[in-house]
Design brief:
Helices cover 39% and strands 16% of the residues. The chain folds into 3 domains: 244 residues, Rossmann fold (3-Layer(aba) Sandwich); 122 residues, no CATH class; 62 residues, no CATH class. It is an alpha/beta fold. It has a 7-stranded mixed beta sheet. Strands 8, 9, 10 and 11 form a 4-stranded antiparallel beta sheet that branches. This is YcjX family protein. It comes from Fuscovulum blasticum DSM 2131.
Length: 471
């Protein structure tokens, strides 16, 4: 039996190398990860991306398309039989309905494969026929990505850091009251452990609604089939000094370790570590609307996220043997359609400033990192209104809450990103010299001509950066 296990393992390893050799030499595969925190617009981004790659009339910045080298793009069965398929058709049906609605948000990991038939360019054009390049789009919640930062933290460190954050936030008051009345050295009482976990989960939900980004553990917000299990029944406690066997502290520590070993590590091993290119979507406008503290949370979070990626390039032999690293990372500020195009450069500059520190480390390791502003699907049109003799570049759309048309001028973003980041890093509680408003728009009704995907903003530039070199 042991000999069979060894030979079976060797056989599977050889088959894996053979598959990677075939992939590398004949039909290359690009695994594109798409993530972002709640309300960043992952589902809409992916739906708009797929639709505009199938019908490329709005993709002039995609070089292979502009040069006429893309002969066809088509959907294929997804390669991983254990993952749900990204419901592209269902999401498009929601957007194309008589009364369009936003599709349901990401709740778990999903995947979809697009295949390109592309003619080579340059020197190879006369010697090779069309080649097939597969694009595997992997959609996963940003909350899961945040958990990778827990792998380097002990329960004691995580609990200490989390409780310090709660002290600064009104959303944490109820949970802190429970913790102050709790003795971590007391013997485990399962009912008390569950009450603490429920209260802590309530805090995480409230913190996320208030615009805070650092809400870990992520599966507390998106538990799926783990809801109610011991691996999600822990919470941060104050250090009791003594930690006898069977105490509440010891059990919380054990469950925290189990969460890392049985939830976080498998996600990294089975999915995250196989990604070649990555998009991280950021709701920068939402953070600015929430205030300086939300902006600082987002900045720190982007630095932690970039540390979680294994960045840089690997050689061809390492690629064949499965040692993948993320070669390109795009940080994208979404909802650019909530601003007049005159303010898009300011939004992009703020997004780039938010990731500047982490970007330098990634580029030093050999990865390419870029930041831009975009909209996976445009929900507004632009207007200029006059108020008190001032020209205000605005946008007009249909309000999600009422369905009625409304014109929004969100405020003028500064040309210098430091005017946003400096108050945020300095601990300011509100903007001193400006106020930024935000409305939530419903999707516009789509009337697509043959060969055109839905209207977007800079989706073609994002695709060119991420996969243009492989086409």
């Amino acid at each position: 039996m042991a000999l069979f296990g060894i030979t079976d393992g060797i056989a599977r390893g050889v088959e894996g190398v053979q598959a990677r050799v075939s992939e590398y030499l004949f039909e290359p595969v690009i695994r594109l990860g798409v993530t972002g925190l709640s309300r960043a617009g992952k589902t809409v981004f992916i739906t708009g991306l797929i639709s505009n790659l199938l019908a490329r009339g709005r993709m002039p910045q995609l070089t292979a398309e502009r040069e006429g080298r893309i002969e066809a793009v088509y959907l294929q069965p997804q390669p991983d039989d254990t993952l749900p398929r990204f419901d592209y058709e269902g999401h498009m049906a929601a957007l194309m309905a008589e009364v369009p609605r936003w599709p349901d948000s990401t709740r778990s990991i999903s995947e979809l494969r697009l295949s390109f038939r592309v003619r080579p360019g340059g020197w190879f054009a006369g010697f090779r026929g069309p080649t097939v390049v597969h694009l595997d789009i992997v959609d996963y919640p940003g909350e899961w990505l945040l958990d990778l930062s827990l792998m380097e933290k002990s329960y004691e460190t995580w609990a200490h850091d989390t409780l310090i954050r709660l002290e600064e936030r009104p959303e944490g008051a109820e949970y802190l009251a429970l913790v102050r009345a709790e003795d971590g050295a007391a013997r485990l009482d399962e009912a008390r452990a569950q009450a603490l976990a429920r209260s802590f989960t309530t805090y995480l939900q409230a913190a996320r609604a208030a615009g805070h980004s650092d809400c870990t553990p992520g599966r507390f917000l998106l538990p799926g089939d783990l809801a109610g299990s011991p691996v999600l029944t822990f919470a941060p406690l104050r250090h009791p000094g003594q930690m006898p066997r069977g105490s509440l502290w010891r059990e919380m520590e054990r469950r925290y370790a189990a969460y890392k070993d049985r939830v976080v590590a498998p996600f990294f091993r089975d999915h995250f570590s196989r990604i070649d290119r990555q998009v991280v979507l950021m709701d920068v406008l939402g953070a600015i609307h929430q205030g300086p503290r939300a902006v600082e949370d987002l900045r720190r979070l982007m630095a932690e996220i970039l540390q979680a990626f294994r960045v840089g390039r690997t050689g061809w032999l390492a690629t064949l043997l499965g040692a993948k690293r993320v070669e390109k990372i795009l940080f994208a500020a979404t909802k650019a359609d909530h601003l007049h195009h005159e303010q898009h450069p300011q939004l992009a500059a703020i997004a780039e400033a938010l990731v500047a520190e982490a970007k330098g480390r990634a580029e030093f390791a050999g990865a390419e990192v870029a930041a831009l502003s975009l909209a996976g699907l445009r929900a507004t049109v632009e207007e200029v209104i006059e108020r008190d003799g001032q020209r205000l570049p605005s946008v007009k759309g249909r309000l999600l809450s009422t369905g009625k048309p409304a014109v929004m001028y969100p405020g003028a973003l500064p040309a210098d990103p430091s005017r946003v980041l400096a108050p945020a890093r300095g601990g300011a509680t509100r903007w001193l010299d400006a106020e930024y408003g935000l409305m939530t728009f419903a999707p516009a009704r789509l009337n697509l001509r043959p060969g055109e995907g839905p209207p977007h903003i800079r989706l073609d530039r994002a695709v060119e950066f991420l996969i243009g070199d492989r086409l």
